[in-house]
Amino acid sequence: TWSNGPAYTPTGRFGQAISMDGINQYGSVADNPYIAAPNDFTVDAWFRTTDATAGTKVLVSKGSCASDCTYSIETRSGPDRINAVVYANGAQRNASVAIGTLRDGNWHHVALTVDATNDLRLYTDGSLAAGPIALTGTASLNASPMRIGGQPTGNNFAGDIDEVRFAPRAYDAAAIRGYFKTQRPHL
């Protein structure tokens, strides 16, 4: 369900993409077993932005990471960063990397993985950027929807988002690099 009318842009990474205004637009996928797992999962997306406003902007999340979320992938400014957040047993773990060309208007790929041994990894543009970071157990589960492009309470992303995926397995570095290099949409 899309809230507050984000638009489709015909110039997506693969076909169309969703274009968000950064003010109050976001998408919601109702809670279900296909978008959450306590471990052994991947969340990834393509995005592009030129937004220079300060703060945290949510690309995709399940729950509010201000308190307790299963996962979140965010852009942050000052300096530009990609941040992956996972809560496990009430403890927040972050994987973060500075990206000098984040707001360049080009398409970027980001992936968060949590493997069967509860290690968090963050990949950007096909390469491991941060991790492994050990979680204190499995990721916390919640009944919140998966949000794309922001939250009802803010942190809305300004730019385009395409090919958001939740996969019930942690893709390894070779699979993520291969997906980035083949430049094909998800199956």
Core attributes:
187 residues; mainly beta; 7-stranded antiparallel sheet; 1 helix; globular
**Topology, number of strands:** 14
End-to-end gap: 21 Å
Order of helices and strands: EEEEEEEEEEEEEEH
User: How would you sum up the global shape?
Assistant: globular
- Poorly predicted ranges: none
Task: Lay out the secondary structure.
Elements: E1 2-3, E2 7-9, E3 17-21, E4 26-29, E5 41-48, E6 56-64, E7 68-76, E8 81-88, E9 91-98, E10 108-114, E11 119-124, E12 127-134, E13 146-148, E14 158-167, H1 173-182
Antiparallel strand pairs: 1-4, 2-3, 3-14, 4-13, 5-10, 5-14, 6-7, 6-13, 7-8, 8-9, 10-11, 11-12
Question: Can you walk me through this structure?
Answer:
- The structure is a single chain.
- This protein is mainly beta and 187 residues long.
- Helices cover 5% and strands 48% of the residues.
- It has one helix and 14 strands; from the N terminus they run ββββββββββββββα.
- It has one helix at residues 173-182, and strands at 2-3, 7-9, 17-21, 26-29, 41-48, 56-64, 68-76, 81-88, 91-98, 108-114, 119-124, 127-134, 146-148, 158-167.
- It has a seven-stranded antiparallel β-sheet, with no helix packed on it. Strands 2-3-14-5-10-11-12 form a seven-stranded antiparallel β-sheet.
- Strand 7 and strand 8 (81-88) form a beta hairpin.
- It starts with a strand and ends in a 5-residue tail after the last helix.
- 41% of the residues are buried.
